[in-house]
User: Fold this.
Amino acid sequence: EWIKFAAACREGEDNSKRNPIAKIRSDCEEKHPITYSISGVGIDRAPYGIFVVNPRTGEINITSIVDREVTPVFVIRCFAKHSVTGIDLEPPLELRVRVLDINDNPPIFAQTVFTGSIEESSMDNTLVMKIIASDADEPNHLNSKIAFKIESQEPSGPPMFIMNKYTGELHLANYLDREQHSSYTLVVKASDRDGAADGISSLCSCNVKVIDVNDNFPTLAQSSFSASISENSLSSDLLRIQALDADEEFTDNWLAEFFFLSGNEDNWFEIVTDRATNQGILRVIKELNYEYLQTHSLIIGVRNVAAFHHSVARDFQMSGTPLTIEVKNVIEPPRFHPSSVVFSVSESTRVNYVVGTYTAIDEDTGAIASNVVYSIGRDPAAWFRINQNTGEITLNKVIDRESIYVINGQYRAEVLAITRGVTRYTATGTIVLSIQDINDNCPTINTELRKVCMHSPSVIITAKDRDGDPYGPPFTFSIHGEPQTTWIIRSINASSAELVSQNIDFYIYRIYISVRDNQGRRSSSTTLSGAAIGLMFLGGLIFVLIPILMSMSDCCGCGPGAAGGVGTGFEPVPECTEGAIHPWGIEGAQPEDRDVSHILAPTTAAGGDFCEPSDIYTNTYGGGGVVASGVEETTGVGYGTGTGYGTAGGISGTGEVKGSIGGTIKEYREGGVNMAFLDNYFSEKAFVYADEDEGRPANDCLLIYDHEGVGTPVGSVGCCSFIGEDTDETYLDTLGPKFKTLAEICLGKEIEPFPDVNLPWPCVNVTFPNPESDLNLPPPGTTIVVNGCAPMPPPVGTTTVVTENTYTSGSTIQPPRPMPDPLLHGNMTVTETYTSGSPSLCVDPLRASNVVVTERVVGPASASDLRGMLDIPDLADGSNVIVTERVIAPNSRLPTSLSIPDLVDGSNVVVTERVFRPASGMPGSLINIP
Amino acid sequence: GFHVKVKEWDENGMARWKTFRRQKR
Assistant:
């Protein structure tokens, strides 16, 4: 139930004269006393008290002026209550009172000033902007209906704009030209009641900016321009050319862009725009030559930076403006032209060679300058001299393309031409000597010795060649000598390779590596590089160390030292085992050092004079001969079992071994080395070491030794590596004395003698040719005494480590020398002996009784070579390689002659002999030599 | 019933009462 609008009042007026505006009555008042009441907005809620009711009669009066814009409708809620009980006798009734609108509000603009812009030359009716206004009177009522109108325009004149009366949109009504009026100001009126005369109006301002477009072509201030400049000079502001343009200043529509239509083909000039003045600045950027051209006639044009507006673009016509530059003549000094000249010569060109003639020019005449004196200016290597009158240039020195002053094959120097007379001018020219390279340098190997890890042994080899292409990389690296069975070279890149061992071992390898350049020029073995010096030196050391190492690793374990075959010591050859693979050498487990003097000393032994001190303990290696290798044991079953076997023969044969070891590793391979055995052998070692890695200090000493191949020079360098921490040498303390000595030698340390209360060590010297000047190894037949010191006869009770080696070349193997009677006194250890030449051993025989001799011989199984030295059967296949090893540990009653051992007392001699990879046809009876 | 009368003015400025009743919508 509801009540429709029932009453109305007018805003802004005193409506009280119309009271009561309404009256309410209940039919209950006939039976009950009733009190009427009202509530709601305008009564008991703000605005309060506008309406009141008479409680008895129910008449409702309005008491105040109302504002429709504040409260457009009042809702009066009417009640009829029992006057005594106050109970509502009727449901409440709502009486709505509407406030009638009057036009009491003007239009209000959204902005005080409206601004907009439009490009000049725009089309008619283009929308410029929209004016917005509102009216607070009753919506959709005439009192709030606004009409817009342009009241005025500034600048005046024809109306440029038109206003939409109802929407307030301002449109373009005429052609705009910014260059005429860049902006307009309009006064716009908004009136309600649809613009009727009784409406209320408001005014606003509209500013319209006219945007510039490039509709004007630039022009030059003058119809022609001219300037002058001296020849051979430059100018950054020779002339200013004023441009004129009606478009908006400092915009791209206004800024001029100058260009040459003709006359500047050689780019002598350029014009840049001064953006502040719109002037073109003429610059001379290349020296002008009066003798070449006295006047430059240029035609210049101008346009704007911005493109022309489409409305005028088709009207543009390029017009040229003449610009004349006069060149002034000046007196010029001589000059080299061209400023540099290139001469090509071969690197082999000799001194006094006439390179060519380089003369200065008289610029004014264009002829060769006649009044000048030539001289050489900057000439860092002083290669040139010049004829002061003719400018003829001659080589003053032998040129070297590898000189530090030669860059990219070119050497540069300066030639000066100085005028005679009081006022002197100097012209400078550059001569470039382009040197054609020749292959006059061998590649050199730059490989530092590195510690070679047993599990990943490798050495990076790099090479370089002072010659350039095509005489440099790629280099070809080659291994020479025996270790090719163990070592391979893997190419890394054009100038380096990796030397890798697949089965590295505790043995000494001497590896000789050569490198060839791209043109086949090889690093000569007789012209070792600096890098090779170190190798050579270490190679020498290796020769020194081989016997030591071998003695440590191969000694039969029968001796007292055998018990210590763990940890850091050498592991001994298992006593009396036959055919077993000898564990690789671990220092400390071999039989303790024994004096061998008693088996070496007798000077009365057959064979002649052994007492030349210089020959004592000489290990002699023949050229290319395989002396020792990483393989030390044999698979021959039953070898080394016979006590006393070959004792004397082995020793006596020592000297002859050399003669029998002409074979090389190549021959090994060709003879059919049991590679399976080798692989298995070294693999087993590797596995064992792998298991022991954590418990083993990484300070094993590893000497790598290899032998050159056939035809390689004698005494070629070897390689020696030592595994250990670079910064921590304490590991040396964990080594046994022998191995420690090895390590110290490897490290270049001064070797500490074993405890010796009697005598110092024999001097251990290593003598090489001057490594700086010439490290060429001697030709075949030359002997290099690595240890040149004559050994001193050790006194009784001393221990001597013999580290003397002699490299002996020559294809002729010297006949074996009988060994002296080893009945010596004192302790003497001869670790390895190879003899090919002069008497090799001579020690004081009056020494202690213990002798340990370890010997290895590797060589072709030429029975004839061995015959007489070793009492072994003939070998059917002469190409077979035999490795024999003997350990002789006689007691004090060793026979007096090593060459003819007295086996009657064989119980005092332990001889272990092994043959490595015997020929297939080699009888096993080799071990049965009595 | 609960009645309400509203005073209205005609074009001549004469007032007259108009009665409204509750109506069902």
